[in-house]
Amino acid sequence: FSEFSFAFGHMEKIKVGLSMATRWSDPTAVLVYGITGAVVAVLLEQWFLWSLIGFKASLYVIALEFAGLWWYYNFKYLITEPANTSDFLVFKKKSLEMSWAKNRIPAAILYEAYITGDIDIKGDVFETLMNKRSEFIDYRPTFSLLKFLVLQFFPSHSSSFHGQHNDKKEIAEHYDRGNDFFNAFMGPSMVYTSGIFHGLDQTLEEAQHNKMSLICDKLMMKDGERHLDIGCGWGTLVRHSAKYYKAKSTGVTLSVEGAAWCNEHTEKEGLTDSVTILNEDYRDIPKDQKFNKISAIEMAEHVGLSNFQMFLASIKERLEDDGMFLMQVAGLRQGSNWEDVQWGLFMSKYIFPGADASTPLNWYIRQLELAGFEVHSVETIGKHYSHTLHRWYNNWMTNKATMVEKYGDYLYRLWSFFLAWSVVAAGQGSATCYQILCHKNSSEFDRNIFTTPSPTQHVDPRFSGESS
Asked: Of 320, 190, 199, 204, nearest to 258 (Cα)?
């Protein structure tokens, strides 16, 4: 099953890469055809040379060809346009300064050198990327990025392999760094997903409260209903639905640190009778448990392309026939350009290695319909994500001294670049976020519920000035 899942994941990844292109010349199509074609060509050449001159000699020929390709790529293809790059960067290594001080620097070389401390960015990282990137950054892929993509064909390096052990390891490496790490940028709300702003004068905490209420309102959450939140993070949504909508909420997370935070704050808020936290894989939720409302907020991207139908089948099996499912997912632009692709590859390589199910909207809709769901509504909240990320970035920069002392300069720099670049990406549509509301596609489902007046969204008295 694992080998089949891995192979299917590769095929789906290739299919998605091609479908993201609107023209043959779009970057995703160029990369898919170029890399797949190169791998097939090398294998065929190896077989031909082996039969002609023997295995050992054929390896020498392939090695020489590879060395020649590496030289051409690095010293011919990567010759970029002249630019005053030294106006924006401080070079700590002479070789980098000689290569890029007077030329546009490839994005991959920039972030790799920045996070290792070989380059500093003059001024604020976000302000520089937001306002000056067009003056000194080049977005053509480097040889190291092509190597990263080629290694995706091998199980030990591929993000297409999503067994339960792999998922648990990935979650532990990312989410169990320490709650203080995430609190340093997410703030008191401890929500690692896009907020919803009702005006840009609102705080991050207000935006996250708005988002929780919007989700509950879209799901038409009612008193006493059973609510399941898959990938609940630090449990803010399940506590919100229990506190303000009187739901019986269950949160599921693989993160040990996240589960501990959930349980601690559930007890502090007096919600132990209404909130249950399961520290396990979503695939281990008992199949006989049924829920009126199910949510998965920016968790589905981590399921993996090869497991997506299994994920949706698991949700459908646990959803009551008259129930509702809301999936919030971070997606990508259809017809991505090279800047979009560079950001996506950075995220895949450094931030969320297993989140290969970030796609344009059409793929999610197709998957939901194939799984037997009817999509009721879709809302794009990408710009809200950009403003959420900007506030995360500001929080992170405020906590620099503490984070560097505990987690080191490398991780601090990585997160600074990640948050800054993501503000830009989400703001201009390179990346985005969708809220997709759906239900089982059955003739018996009462669609008249969508013709009744929408409920008024809950407003937290802390933010409205009302007395509680």
From this structure: 190
| 17 vs 55: CA distance, rounded Å | 34
Distance CA 447, CA 451 (A): 8
Tokens encoding 246: 């009187």
Distances in whole angstroms, Cα of residue 388 to Cα of each of 49, 300, 312, 353, 398: 55, 20, 28, 22, 16
Q: How far apart are CA 382 and CA 388, in angstroms?
A: 10
Q: What is the pTM of this model?
A: 0.90
DSSP three-state, residue 81: coil
Residue 371 CB partners (closer than 8 Å, separation 6+): 309, 312, 313, 316
Which backbone phi and psi does 402 adopt, to 5 degrees? -65, -40
pLDDT tens digits for range 13-34: 788 888 888 998 999 999 988 8
What percent of the chain shows pLDDT beyond 90? 67
Enter the tokens of residue 226: 């059973």
3-state SS record for 7-49 = HHHHHHHHHHHHHCCCCCCCHHHHHHHHHHHHHHHHHHHHHHH
- Helix residue spans in 79-189 (DSSP H): 94-100, 107-115, 125-136, 143-151, 164-175, 179-186
Determine the Cα–Cα distance for residues 71 and 74; give it in Å rounded to an integer.
5
- Alpha-carbon Rg for the chain, nearest whole angstrom, is 24
Distances (CA, A) of 113 to 5, 322, 413: 35, 53, 10
Report the distance separating Cα 98 and Cα 110, nearest Å. Answer: 14
